[in-house]
């Protein structure tokens, strides 16, 4: 996906202190010996922000002694009676190891700061910290305050207060009403989960997601479904570890696995996913043996069209990636007749050297399919203008069409290039493409810094089939503005990237209408990574006037997902069909998104259309 705010740029367990950490101007006098709950206050911003505080008492509950954001968590063992005020705080020491141990009783002096992970412009909430700190030890081996248990009863189902899209920073915390307020009221404190199910697999950064409520929108395979903008699944919590990896390896878990027993540690806030339990005690990993799926083989009279985002594929990718993608296409997808492929990079991958051709990339992929026992796929694609289509810098990602020439034939029509728009023309009273393959409205502003759709004309058992490969603009923004984070301070979060995708959807819908104006029964399949949900305005634009429909919607609601982000199972990839397709059979083939061992971050899907 280039999409959906992919959290892969920086190791979340090693955040660096941003220069944009916000502090109010310091008053002349230091605050007189406050306790931690006085510093944290009853909103998201400390009432003492910018002030120097002295002799703040507490017990060390966790130590981060690695990376560029070192420090420790301090918690007051004598809490007040206000559930809105946190009793914990992070003491930031930068690149210097703090030299303290869990159980040390300290008196800490320092400056109260509000730090925005990723920078204030990223839209996240701030983390109240003590910086420029010094301390004295007044005891060792002290018992730790009891961890607050996160359960379905203690974490409210409503996610966040609404502020009309504005900031919720100044609103009084209501931890009994909203999940985000509950987590904020526990910022820096010891929290615990017990016998929890994994809803987001272990990443390469040694973290995973769990749910504290296994009954909250469960999927059949153990995940948590993100089914609407108003149901954000507040029971999700990210887990990383403060334990040395060599002494306590982080579990390699898939969706549906469990962390048995107690996992506990201080509750942090970071850029990639928000509230994170930094474990000082890790539960035991229970492997529930999640299996990769296989779809059935299409019958002789069925056309199988699949879509697969291959995630920045180029000759620079590991050979194992090509082998596993081929295995996915041949074994798990049963060798579809046509495949729309997204995120095909040029022949030098991320090297920004002006190369735009992808002949070697496509050759390596198709050769790998043959070696895996699959068909000798042919392909069609159009090289983009250098650096015009977004994605990884230098990679020039584009969409492509794979097809099995023993099952379908491609109708080649000259004239398609990076900038010339393909048109629907009439040929013998039937619709045809002016160029095949051809790009749809490639110079329209809707496709700025985004991949352009690729239309191709095929023949299957005597019938014309129009297939359009798509990769709409990313939720992460890329060269444009990305969406505000779900767990951020602006509520409800603005979907800045959405208007562009809506316009893209309108263009694609109009193109399909042009085809159907000449033949209402024309067979059109629009597949790819649309970077948006089935309930989104983008998909509404695509389906407008019933030009296209979503066979996905005939699946049970809790099975409509093929991507996992921040512990939410969701749908970004779609195969839309025209009414001329009848009632196709749809299958999302779960082989990637739920697994720690991924070939891509997307699951492929396939639609089977019976020849009428």
From TrEMBL:
Gene3D superfamilies: Endonuclease/exonuclease/phosphatase
GO molecular function, one term: exonuclease activity
Record keywords, A-Z: Endonuclease, Exonuclease, Hydrolase, Nuclease, Signal
Keyword Thylakoid set for record: no
Region listing for Disordered, in residue ranges: 476-499
Entries under PANTHER family matching the protein: ENDONUCLEASE/EXONUCLEASE/PHOSPHATASE FAMILY PROTEIN (AFU_ORTHOLOGUE AFUA_3G09210), ENDONUCLEASE_EXONUCLEASE_PHOSPHATASE FAMILY PROTEIN (AFU_ORTHOLOGUE AFUA_3G09210)
Protein name: Endonuclease/exonuclease/phosphatase
Species of the source: Streptomyces albus
